[in-house]
Amino acid sequence: MKKLEQINSTNTVVGKTKSNSRKKISLAITAFALSAALIVGSMFAYFSDIYEDNVVGIVNAGTLEIKPAKGNSTSYKIQRYNADGEGDKWEDYDVEASGTNILNPGDKFRIVGNMENLGSKSAVLQANITLDFSETKAQAMVGKVAFYGSCTENGILSDKIVVDSEDSGLTLDNNVYAYSKQVGIISGTVEVENDSDGDCLSTFDGDIVYFQIDTSVGNGAQAAKIEINAIWKAIQYRNNDVNSIDWDTAESRI
C-alpha cells in the first residue's frame, strides 16, 4: 500500500510539474505578443504630416497653323524672267494674262511661295505644286517643259529636275506635272529654331521651282491655258527626323 501511495503521489507531483510548464509557456507567448504590439505601435508613433499640392499641372499640346503670309490671298506667285528688267529681273506674272503679259515659248518662270506659321510649334514645311496641261491646246506642251531647282543671277537655269526619277519629287501623270519639295523649317510663336544665320523665321518666302517652255512648241499651243495650284503641308519639327519624313503618312493625319 505504501508503495502504491508513493507511486500515486509521484504521479500527482509529475502532473503538477507539466501544468506549470504550460502556464509558463502561455505567459511567455502572451508577453512576446504584447512586446511585438508595443514595438509595432511605436513605429507609428512618430510625428508625421502630409501635404497635397492644390495646383494642378497642365501640359498643353502645341499647334500648327499655316496660312499665306502677309495677308496674301494666295500662297504663291508666278514670276517671269525679263532680261531687260530691273533688279533681279524677275517680275510678277499676271495670271489673268492680258496684252503683252502672256506666255511665249522660251519664257522662264519661277514659282515663289509665301507661307506663315501662326501656330505655337515649329514646323517642317513642304510645298506641292501642280501644273495642269489637260486643256486641249496645252497638251501640245507636255514633254516640252523643263524644270529646274535654281537659277543664276544672269538668268541661267540650273540643277535640272528629271521627271519621274527617284527622289526628284517631280512626276507626270495624265498631262499633270506634280512637284513636291521640302522647303525648310519655320518657327512657331513659342518654339523658335536656330539655323546657321540665326533664328528661323515663322515665314517662308522663297523659290520653289523654275520651269521653261521649250521653243520647239508649235502653233498648236497658241492660246493654251495652264492651270497652276499649290498645296502646303506642315509637320512638327521637334522630335522628328527631318531627313526621312513620310509625307504621305503625314497627310493621312491632317
Short description:
With 254 residues, the protein is α+β, with helices and mostly antiparallel strands. Helices cover 19% and strands 33% of the residues.
Mean pLDDT: 80
Report the radius of gyration as a whole number of Å.
43 Å
- Beta-strand percent range: 25-35%
Assign a percent range to the helix content.
10-25%
The 3D shape can be described as elongated
Number of structurally distinct domains: 2
Q: How many strands in all?
A: 13
Q: With helices defined by DSSP (H or I, 4 residues minimum), what is the helix count?
A: 2
Quick one: biggest sheet? Answer: 7 strands, antiparallel
Q: What is the structural class?
A: alpha+beta
Strand and helix order: HEEEEEEEEEEEEEH
What are the low-pLDDT stretches, counting only 5+ consecutive residues below 50? 1-18
Q: End-to-end distance, in Å?
A: 113 Å
